[in-house]
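Late entry, evening session. Most of the bench is empty. Finally got around to the prediction I had been postponing all week. Sequence below, unchanged from the version circulated by S.P.
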Amino acid sequence: MMSEPKRVHPISMFIDFISDAVSMIKNFIIPFFVLIFVNSNSSIRFYAFIILGVLLLWKAVFTILEWRRFTYRMEDDEFRVESGVITKKKKYISLERIQTVNTSEGIFQRIFGLVRVQIETAGGTDGPEVSLTAITKAEAEQLKQSIFNRKKSLQQEEMTDEAGDLHDHIAAQKPVQEEINVSYRMGVPELLLAATTSSGIGVIISGCLAIYTQIDEILPMDGFFKQFSFLSHASVEIYAILIFLAVLIAWILSVGVTALQYANFAAKRKGKDIIITRGLIERHQMTIPLARIQAVKIKENILREPFGFATVMLVSAGGSITEKETSSVLFPLIRKKKINELLSQFTDHYHVAPETELKKVPKRSLKRYLISYGFVPLLVGVILSVRIPPWGYLALIPLPLALFFGYLAYKQSGYTIKDPLIQMTSRGIGKTTGIVLRKRMQNYTMTQSFFQKKGRVASIHTFVKSSALLDSFGVHHLEEEDAARVFDWYSYEKNESS
């Protein structure tokens, strides 16, 4: 077992400095932009550059000292890290608490043949428990094997101590199960199709709007708008062309982002672990033990659904609250008819029931879905039509689309129970299906508003652990008796286990 203190590779000093410098500049970019570029006083500009230089120099010196003081080792069944420049910090992590050891390769790590290692523990909330910025691939693999081999030995020793010789005798009589090894790799055609049908365009547009609102508050934009004042007299056709071009550019950007994110995507099951690798510029590797899987989530956006494609995700416990997603993508793009075949190879319990087996919401719930989806667009459309005719009439255009999605939600929402699994399907704009093991359900809630009670319908939800958060699945406006039936099925398990 590794017991001698080790340091990360020296290139980590440069990587950490660049990362911290970018973060610092990002936090102060608006005041520095105003002081350096907008401000006309040369003295203030000079002192602004001096302050920026001093801050960067201080950060460089501090980063070197941090690298000198940072060491890691394994000792006495613990992963030990010592760090700190002003205050010395010691962090000892029991190997039994370690859930995953993930690796990633940024641009600088790839140049020098290194990897970043992130160690996550059960109950982590504010990022990985330990992050090793840059170590060799051989060291990372040795570290990973050392941690999990020793962790496995500790678990076996604990089982032996508890069960005694009788347990050993029975275990010796059992046939050894063959280790399962399967893999899935995303090809270039699938990557291009996934990129062109992704829903990332909404993220790009909302991000641009957020940046615009911030810049508009800080920087004088009047001069910029004057350059385009001629557009105030433009025809409807010109506005339509400009909107089309803006949407096209946002779509192209979303295609590029998705392609970079899922390039070289591969998933592999090795024994009781699923190993996922992805990324072109920065490569990520994530290991998910089967025991951590809490649910399977299947998402179908409006571009993929008509062609029979979906995205399959794993909701897993552990991880950190800073992770952007509560789920890990297992298959970024897959034909729905192939999901069960691959799920049976990668997981031990999960499968998708056909839509014909779902217990759908009752017909009297149709008006509730139409009202839920159509009320806000109708209200906004009416207000704008009254306040700013005739342009306000355009605000009524989304209403038929909202009613259409409301009808789809009514037709597709439902649940089915295939003990010990429950499958729930619901819809916002896209369709989401959640498949949960009963023992993984953190709770089950059945809610009824005043109007739902009069209509003898109810909404149901269940929550599962996801990273440091909770993920949920539910069905709205379900038959009251069906909601109670799901409660009886869930509470039976709780009573049995208590």
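Two things to note before I forget:
The first helix runs from residue 11 to 38.
The first strand starts at residue 71 and ends at 75.
Will write this up properly tomorrow.
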